[in-house]
Predict the 3D structure of the following.
Amino acid sequence: MTRTVFCRKYQKELRGMDRPPMPGDLGQDVYENISLRAWQEWQQLQTMLINESHLSMRDAQARRYLMEQMQKFFSNEQHDRPTGFVEPEENDD
């Protein structure tokens, strides 16, 4: 049986992740409130932000920046976008 969650980003029931994507309270919050679809979209956006901005994950400031952008993305707030980025179209997964 597929696990579903009420996705914070899409405001509807969607397929959930199989396990928390990271340790700690933040990972548990994402697991309980973010759909697999939204997580995969964030992963793509995060990769583009890292590459375009030449971020080093060894830099604590870069990691904080990405966490801020992730929270904005999942809450549908204004977040940074790489040049040419287009929001994914809404579809029912």
About this structure: The domain at 4-74 is CATH 1.10.3880.10 (YggX-like). Residues 20 and 27 are 5 Å apart (CA to CA).
